[in-house]
Amino acid sequence: MKTFIKRVLFSLAFACGLTAMASAKGYTEILHVDAALDRPVVPANQTEDVVVQIKIRPEIVHSDRERPPVNLSLVLDRSGSMSGQKIEEAIQAAEVAVGSLGPRDRVSVIIYDHEVDTLAPSQFATRENIAEIKRRIRGVTSRGNTAIYAGLNQAAAELRRYEDAGYISRMILLSDGLANRGPSKVADFRALGRALAGEDMVISTVGLGLGFNEDIMTTLAEAGQGNTYFVENADDLPRIFAGELGDALNVAATDIEIIVRARGGARIIKSVGREAEIGEKVARFRMPQVYSGLDKLALLEVRAPEGRVGAVEDLIEVEVNYLPVGEKIARTQQVSVPITYTGEVEKVVAAARKDIARNVVDNRIAEAKEEAIAHADAGDREMAASSLRGVVGKISADYGFLGDEVVAAPAAEIEEEAEQVERQGLSNAKRKSYRSDSYQLKNQQSVK
């Protein structure tokens, strides 16, 4: 968050009193925060591992005037491998993207092969400017190698020109190949993505075909805190770009920080899915932006201490800090999450949240797929398959009591995947799919 923003904390009750309190202070909350356990009732007199789900639901932005203006930079691969349908669909997708903007937004277009060219410097997305940008985009032809790193840096330079003017800065990278000019290691792109995210630039990546490096593209999106896409067919590009711009044009809040504090004898174990800073008593999740009408989740595994029958204790406290779009003063919401102890198994089952359990199952599978990739890359098919089968055992142990609808279908699908990996390993296409699918699921990506 930029240094000029002053953090002012408002302690808000998250329930019926929330609306009244917000009204009394002269504003309506743009975010709704909910926190709940997968098993809010647990057996007494023993420790239990439970998962807390923190859900952030932004209000819907109803008009163009309500949203902040966007500062968009498109970074387009024009290397030799982009010839034919690929470059044609990329051109169409770029036209869709720039055509989605309004006159208050800014747009720049960077093209790269072994060199980098600024096809269109940052300018307002007026009707006249958009027409000229589209004309220039239609003239792009494929040639040369792939200088992704240099293209990103040039796009960042265009975004920086207006970084203090109240814009939401967004970068979309399209590539179908390997980074073969300039820095080309995953670590290089992780560092670059983090540096740009520190300047409030969100980076999304679109990998086209089967020739791109999915580790670079996913790592860049993760470090740049944006979305990532694996697009096998070029004709999907216009849909992907339209969806990505839909997110950028509907930012509800920025600089979101979720702080979870364990109470009493509770202990934090690990994040499930989304990356977090984890300590035994405090965990922190960060999200650069949340989008109008799109839920974002954070899942955290917590060890609950022993409790006597009938006891109700606050297990954790959740604090969510965020900056509403168009404002300079951050807000805070707080909510406590209780846990109840019982001597009756029936009460444990009846109180369990199947919706949260399904989200936990999906995220555990995403983590297992990433483990499988690492083992497959090392040439160990057996361990790759074991990672997948291991998660089946975990989700069955945790949620088997909830019935087939929560566990059976995903377990059967993963077992089938494990058998295939054991026989054949991970194909290029399957590896790309695993990498992008896992990232998209863990980050609740709206368009895939």
TrEMBL record:
Gene3D superfamilies referenced in this protein's UniProt entry, alphabetically: von Willebrand factor, type A domain
Keyword Signal in record: yes
Residue ranges, annotated region (Disordered): 419-448
Secretion signal, residue range per the UniProt entry: 1-22
Domain VWFA residue range list: 71-245
Keywords: Signal
Comp. bias (Polar residues): 436-448
PROSITE patterns, per database record: VWFA (PS50234)
Pfam families noted in UniProt: VWA (PF00092)
Protein name: VWFA domain-containing protein
Lineage: Bacteria, Pseudomonadati, Verrucomicrobiota, Opitutia, Puniceicoccales
